[in-house]
Amino acid sequence: MKRVNKDYLVAFFMLLPSLVLLAIFVYGFIGQTFYVSLTNWGRDPAQALALRPVLEFVGFSNYERLFTSFLEVRFRQDLINLFFFTVFFLVGSLGLGLLLAILLDQSVRGEGFFRTIFLFPFSLSFIVTGTVWRWMLQPQGGINALPTAFGLPPGEFTWLTSRQQIWHFNWQDLPFFTGLVVVAVLFWLTVRAWRHHQRTRAATFGAVALVLALWKLTGARIEILPFPERHGFNLALVGIIIAAVWQMSGYTMALYLASLRGIPEELREAARVDGASEFQTYRLVVFPLLGPITLSAMIILGHISLKLFDLIFAMTGPDLATTSVPSLLMFIRSFRAAQFADGAAIAMVLLVLVATIIIPYLWISLRGEVRR
Question: Is the pLDDT of residue 1 over 50?
Fold first, then answer.
């Protein structure tokens, strides 16, 4: 017992420097940022860059203004841009990476060469990728000029400078759709708890989901804006999505290829013996076994997309509103306009978005390790 206690003490003091640094430079700065977001730092130009600014506590008014003020329409459009970018970035990177991994898993000749080619974009920084793709997506050159090499007229898509929007929706409907998502998640948790014979937990989740569903069915509506506000998918994001998928698909290819090589060949042979076609073998045997690696890749890629800054900065700069995301707006508010409270509030919103992805993943992973 004494030996065990001594080992714990040694481990604690070995980790203590890292814990102190983590507490100060991560959680301490998060706390400081949250405090700043609750003040009016930056509203008074005389106090914005003062050595000892006099700050006034304003509570959550900065957050309320971001989501409800007429003047903060760019922030809300930036959130919509981030949503669409994340969805297409995940689908494109996972889909293309899985396709490349399946092709390389067929033991093709020159596999090492192709694997290197596919992985090469991942070795580049987003700044380099953004600069190269900005040249390629110039409206008067690059990809648009490619058809002229075959005697065809040049392309006319404006790529990064497009101001066209599609898939419009009203920001007033956001609480309704958010409620539907919450009900769906609670219903899934109810079914999952019931299957694991956790009756109390299933009853709790089911009751909450039922109450929310009935509340929605009664026509209850939360008005977060006194006026309709239309938002949509900016087509200028298409070029940025292509560049991001080009860079990260090699990474997901490597993850999927390693997972495919880890699947015992006996499982595939057993499926073929049972009469399964190659497509059925992948659908019923291979793809279910790729579930954990898909979840990990989604978490990593989602984390990257939520913090995306350098790729968009290199391709379109921080001032083009059609391709802007909250991280760019945070940069403008904090380091250009010296509106530190607004920048801190945007940073905290991004932190919450990242936490909604990371915390469930860590919870599931740690529970799985405990069970093993």
Answer: no
pTM for the model stands at 0.86
d(CA 372, CA 370): 5
Structure tokens at 208: 């909450």
Distance of CA 51 to CAs 48, 54, 55, 67, 98, Å?
9, 10, 12, 31, 53
Tell me which residue range forms the domain holding 192: 170-226
Q: Count structural domains, the chain.
A: 1
Q: Is residue 30 part of a domain?
A: no
365 in a structural domain: no
Task: Determine contact, residues 248/308, Cβ cutoff 8 Å.
Answer: no
| 212 assigned to some structural domain | yes
DSSP string across 5-65:
HHHHHHHHHHHHHHHHHHIIIIIIHHHHHHHHHTB-TTTSHHHHT-SS----B-TTHHHHH
The tokens describing 85, both together, are 């970018």
Residues 276-304, mean pLDDT to the nearest whole number: 86
pLDDT at residue 368 tops 60? no
- Structural domain contains residue 182: yes
